[in-house]
From TrEMBL, chain A:
GO cellular component: cilium; intraciliary transport particle B
One GO term (biological process): intraciliary transport
Protein name: F5/8 type C domain-containing protein
Source species: Chytriomyces confervae
Superkingdom of source: Eukaryota
Region (Disordered): 142-172
PANTHER family xref list: INTRAFLAGELLAR TRANSPORT PROTEIN 25 HOMOLOG
Compositionally skewed regions (Basic and acidic residues) per UniProt: 142-157
UniProtKB/TrEMBL annotation, chain B:
Name of this protein: IFT81 calponin homology domain-containing protein
InterPro entries: IFT81, IFT81_CH, IFT81_N_sf
Family: Belongs to the IFT81 family.
UniProt keywords, alphabetically: Cell projection, Cilium, Cilium biogenesis/degradation, Coiled coil
Principal localisation: other
Entry annotated with the keyword Electron transport: no
Pfam families: IFT81_CH
Length: 172, 690
């Protein structure tokens, strides 16, 4: 039941031009793009709305020479593990580069569900690169999701208790 | 006399005698002039069949012979002296008149070519002067005839020769041209032969030749056609011009036709002719006569010798006398005219008659003018009437049916006219009668009223009937006014009624609408209150939201800045990581090199020239320490020697100063003065004297 994940969010991006913001990568068309500036490496982190098991990742870009895709299995975007690495030749003309890779179910090393995916442009063929679209296909990991929800509820309840205690204390 | 010309011509060949003008005029003696004349004459006669008789030296000749010779020569050349004939000339030459001789020279030298020709011809065409005695001899007659015949022949041949001579210059050029043409012909022939040889080599040369010939012919024809085209075009242009000119003429003629026609033109011409005649016969001769008279007078005045003052005075006196005389005569005449009318009766009578006749003539002339004008006017009128007649009728005379119709119409109309006229006359009669009755009634009324007033006066009520009349009139008028009032009142009431009904209608229409309006007004006021409250609420909200928006914007700006800072930090850290990685690698290499055994590193070491950085740095440390040591020793040395060196420096500067002073002193001693020992004795210090 792999689906194209919607409600993606860009949590971090290492460079940005206000004319070409990072949100252009998630709008589903290749007509708009995000442009990087200056140096390499450049990175951006895409956060998923829930824990998903990533099945397929596709990137549409321009003038990128080397991609590295990594993901973090935790909740916060730290400790990323690499899942894919690719070098792209310079096409010479102004053609869109399509990078995509799939993770098969049998690949145990990469099968953990993730909430944050980090894309690194290690180097580019020119001073500026552009990423037109990013699409991630995956399955939602139900167990972890429910776990998360429960945890949240418990946290909320704990807070309320604290508050009520506090109130009670104050009253007295 | 242009002596300059003479001197010029003489200085030129063939005479080559340089004589200036002054010399000619004053210095040269007459016999020299005569010699010059003879020389010139000799030159002029050169080229003739007979050697010149003028080639003589004057000094050897008798003066008479010279005079005769020169005179003859001049006669031959048709010399016209200043009014003198040949014999007189001869005499003058004999007398060696300088002026005449110079004149002869000038005449000779002026037209040298002409005189030359004349001389040449003269020798042949001279008519032999045979006295009449000898002429009776037959032989003489024959000879004379022969001579004249031969002279004629000579004249003809001479003319022919002259003609040929003029064209004779052309013979040489013609010969040259003939030669050139012969050469060209030769060239052309050779060219033709060459080309023929070439052409015969070409295959089908006959065909080519035919084609070339045809082409040449066609080209010639083309040229001819072009010429003809041009000619035709010119002809067309000329014809067009002529056509335009004739059009112009036609237009002019037409214009003259419209303005009076041929007769008018003729009349105009006649008038012009008359005027011109008058002018020619009267005016111009008169003016010519006048001018001629003036010219004659002026000529007379000019030709007379200059007058002197006294002459003027005499003339003035004469003029005065003459004027006085004329005045006296005029007076006499007047007296005579006044006193003796009988004696002069006839004259006066004739004069009067002449005056009368002149006046009559003038009057008749005027009348004639007036009559001619009238005649013209009347003829114009006739023309116009004729035109009018011609217009409406459609023809000069109405023919047949039209005429009958016209006549019948006319008859009917005249009948109607008669009837109407009779009616009119009746009416007029009635009108007259009525007027008369009116008058009578008026008179009766007047008498009646006067009677009435009399009665009234008698009975004590003066002007009674007048008052009653006025009363009646007033009551009548009052009645009228009342009627009018009544009418207007009626109208007003009608209008009011209509207005009232209109108002009622409109009210009835408006009533439900007004009810609704009342209801809605209530609603509107409620809504307004509501709206005001909501608006207040909304404004407050807006203010709050605006402030929030501003705050949020600020926050967003802050975040964006943070993002930018973080991004740059990220990149900076990345670079720092890179640098540190490299330095780490360096360290690893060092470590590996200490350990040894890695070939790649050893190759690298060889490439860069040393084994480990440690070695390099150690070496450098050692070097630097050595350098430090040496420098410290150096420093110690310098320090120790510093003090005595300074002292020595002071000593040496003193010595130098002393030596300088010595040198200066010696210089002074050597250059002038003796030793100045006084200064020295006072100084008692120890010195080194050299």
């Amino acid at each position: 039941m792999a689906e194209n994940i919607t409600n993606l969010r860009i949590s971090m991006v290492t460079s940005g031009d206000p004319r070409f913001p990072a949100e252009n990568m998630l709008d589903g068309t290749t007509k708009t793009f995000w442009a990087s500036t200056g140096l390499f490496p450049q990175e951006f982190i895409v956060s998923l709305p829930a824990y998903y098991v990533i099945k397929k990742v596709s990137i549409w870009s321009m003038k990128v020479a080397g991609w590295t895709v990594s993901r973090s299995t935790g909740d916060a975007p730290f400790d990323f593990d690499e899942i894919y690495r690719e070098d792209i030749e310079d096409a010479g003309d102004q053609s869109l580069q399509v990078t995509s890779f799939s993770i098969s179910s049998s690949d145990s090393k990469r099968e953990y569900s993730a909430k944050n995916v980090k894309f690194t442009i290690r180097k580019g063929h020119s001073d500026f690169t552009a990423v037109h679209r990013v699409a991630i296909t995956g399955e939602i990991d139900a167990s972890r999701e429910s776990e998360r929800k429960n945890k949240k509820e418990r946290d909320l309840a704990a807070d309320e208790d604290e508050l009520s205690v506090g109130r009670a204390v104050r009253v007295h | 006399m242009d002596l300059r010309l003479v001197s010029e011509r003489l200085s030129q060949p063939p005479f080559n005698k340089t004589l200036s003008v002054i010399q000619l005029h004053d210095e040269v003696p007459p016999y020299a002039l005569a010699q010059l004349i003879s020389d010139v004459a000799a030159y002029l006669e050169e080229g003739g069949p007979v050697p010149s008789i003028h080639k003589v030296d004057i000094r050897n000749e008798e003066p008479e012979a010279t005079a005769w010779r020169i005179g003859e020569f001049m006669r031959i050349l048709k010399f016209r002296g200043p009014g003198l004939d040949i014999n007189a000339i001869r005499l003058e030459i004999l007398n060696a008149d300088r002026a005449l001789l110079l004149e002869i020279l000038h005449f000779l030298l002026k037209d040298v070519a002409l005189h030359k020709k004349r001389c040449y011809l003269a020798t042949f065409l001279e008519i032999v002067d045979v006295p009449s005695d000898y002429m009776q001899d037959d032989l003489m007659l024959e000879l004379c005839e022969q001579v004249s015949q031969l002279q004629d022949q000579f004249k003809e041949t001479h003319k022919f020769v002259e003609g040929l001579r003029q064209t004779g210059g052309a013979t040489t050029s013609v010969k040259r041209e003939i030669q050139q043409m012969e050469e060209e012909k030769q060239q052309v022939l050779s060219k033709i032969s060459k080309i023929r040889k070439k052409v015969e080599q070409v295959p089908n040369h006959q065909v080519w030749l035919e084609a070339a010939k045809k082409l040449r012919i066609e080209q010639q024809q083309e040229a001819a056609l072009a010429d003809r085209i041009r000619e035709q075009r010119n002809a067309v242009q000329n014809a067009e011009k002529k056509y335009a000119a004739s059009q112009q003429q036609l237009k002019e003629a037409r214009s003259t036709l419209t303005s009076g026609g041929a007769e008018g033109l003729l009349a105009k011409m006649q008038e012009e002719c008359k005027m011109n005649k008058y002018l020619a016969s009267d005016n111009l001769p008169k003016s010519i006569e006048e001018t001629k008279q003036r010219i004659r007078d002026l000529k007379r005045v000019i030709s007379e010798p200059p007058l002197r003052e006294t002459d003027f005075e005499n003339m003035d006196e004469e003029i005065k006398e003459l004027n006085a005389e004329t005045a006296r005569l005029a007076e006499k005449k007047l007296l005579k005219a006044n006193d003796n009318s009988s004696g002069d009766d006839k004259l006066a009578l004739f004069r009067q008659q002449a005056a009368i006749i002149a006046r009559k003539k003038a009057g008749t002339a005027q009348r004639l003018n007036a009559l001619t004008e009238e005649v013209m006017r009347l003829s114009e009128e006739v023309e116009s009437r004729r035109e009018q007649h011609r217009g409406p009728g459609g023809g000069k005379v109405l023919t047949g049916d039209d005429f009958k119709k016209y006549v019948s119409e006319l008859r009917g109309k005249s009948n109607i006219y008669k009837i109407k006229r009779s009616e009119l006359s009746e009416m007029q009669a009635e009108f007259g009668i009525l007027q008369r009755t009116e008058q009578i009634l008026h008179a009766r009324e007047k008498s009646m009223s006067s009677n009435l007033s009399e009665l009234e006066r008698r009975s004590g009520i003066p002007n009674f009937h007048n008052d009653r009349e006025t009363l009646e009139k007033v009551s009548e008028r009052k009645g009228e006014v009342d009627q009018a009032k009544g009418k207007t009142l009626q109208e007003i009431s009608d209008i009011i009624a209509s207005l009232v009904s209109n108002i009622n209608n409109k009210k009835s229409v408006l009533a439900p609408v007004i009810n609704e309006l009342r209801k809605l007004r209530v609603v509107a006021s409620d809504l307004e209150a509501d709206y005001v409250e909501r608006k207040r609420h909304y404004d407050a909200m807006m203010v709050g939201l605006d402030s929030e928006a501003v705050k949020l914007e600020q926050e967003v700006k802050g975040y964006r800045q943070d993002i930018a800072i973080d991004q740059s930090r990220y990149h900076y850290l990345n670079m720092a990581i890179g640098l540190i990685d490299i330095s780490q690698e360096k360290v690893l290499h060092e470590m590996k090199s200490y350990i040894g055994g890695d070939e790649a590193i050893e190759a690298q070491q060889k490439a860069r020239g040393f084994k480990t950085y440690r070695d390099v740095y150690n070496k450098r440390i050692v070097e630097q320490e050595n350098m430090g040591k040496s420098l410290r020793e150096h420093q110690k040395e310098i320090k120790s020697k510093h003090e005595p060196n300074v002292k020595q420096l002071a000593y040496f500067t003193g010595i130098r100063k002393l030596l300088q002073l010595k040198v200066a002193h010696n210089h002074k001693v050597l250059s002038g003065g003796g030793l100045d020992t006084t200064g020295f004795s006072q100084i008692t210090q120890d010195r080194l004297v050299l």
